[in-house]
Write a structure and sequence with these properties.
By secondary structure, the protein is α/β, with parallel strands linked by helices. It contains eight helices and nine strands. The protein has helices at about 40-50, 65-70, 80-95, 115-120, 140-145, 155, 175-190, 215-235, and strands spanning about 1-5, 10-15, 25-30, 55, 105-110, 130-135, 165-170, 195-200, 245-250.
């Protein structure tokens, strides 16, 4: 079942409920820089097909700029972290309060620009089951504190109490292996549990089947199974709080050169 949601507090989004009905876990899936476009809705539907309640909020509901330019990638909305926390907290409250979606565990999944948002929110709340980050949260603009991001990424990582899954692509034009190692080092320095994969030759946005130049169906299938396995393990309490687990797997070419990675459409 799919239902458009619009609450009086300004929250908009689309809720997906599995055919089997209410599930034990839910995923709040956050969109890329283009806004709440079809790709994010497709991923939410895919999560529902796999048995999870999924909610895709429109993070830019209150933005009154040129929506067509945003969707086309010709405009960019920089969302302050406090606003991000406000919107996602409303989404969590929605899932906690609706009798159809009162799942025991809620995962936050960020993609590209929204990759940092699960870390932002989970560093402030203790009721999140786990964080999922696809090719985000490590670039320079995500890392340091500033007026829009009051707390640096390393300081937010230090406050995490839940495990995280990170998936990157070797051929990403915005995230280098140095960036990947930086977030890995922050997690290990602060003794946080994580699983991290770098997919060989995969570009930025390789899940996105609406961008033929980027989409990698075989890599998407593998990465999606990583996601499902991680959430299943968390649900089964195989990432207990009293243990710290570090899992890092990366495959890259011997001649890897980040400067040669290019943007694909």
């Amino acid at each position: 079942m799919k239902e458009s949601i619009q609450l009086a507090n300004g929250l908009e989004g689309v809720l997906f409920i599995p055919e089997s009905g209410r599930s034990s876990a839910a995923v709040i899936i956050l969109h890329e820089r283009y806004g709440l476009v079809q790709h994010t809705l497709d991923l939410a539907q895919k999560l529902a097909d796999d048995g999870y309640v999924a909610f895709a909020p429109n993070l830019f509901s209150r933005w009154d700029g040129d929506k067509a330019a945003l969707t086309a990638g010709k405009a960019r909305v920089i969302m302050p972290d406090p606003e991000c926390t406000r919107v996602i907290s409303q989404a969590i409250d929605l899932l906690r309060g609706d009798e159809r979606t009162q799942s025991e565990k809620i995962f936050l999944m960020g993609v590209c620009q929204s990759g940092r948002y699960p870390i932002v929110v989970a560093s402030q709340r203790n009721d999140i089951a786990g964080c999922v980050v696809f090719y985000g949260a490590t670039q320079g603009r995500d890392w340091n504190a500033n007026d829009l991001q009051p707390v640096s990424m390393p300081d937010m990582v230090a406050k995490l109490t839940v495990p995280s899954l990170f998936v990157f692509g070797e051929a990403d034009h915005t995230i280098s292996l140095d960036h990947v190692r930086r977030i890995r080092d922050a997690l290990e320095t602060h003794r946080k549990s994580y699983r991290m994969h770098v997919v060989r030759a995969a570009p930025h946005g390789f899940l996105n089947d609406t961008m033929p130049g980027r989409y990698r169906p075989c890599d998407t299938k593998v990465a999606w199974q990583m996601l499902l396995t991680f959430m299943e393990e968390v649900e089964a309490n195989r990432w207990p709080a009293e243990e710290v687990r570090w899992e890092f797997e990366s495959v890259s070419g011997a001649d890897y050169d980040f400067s040669k990675n290019v943007r694909l459409e």
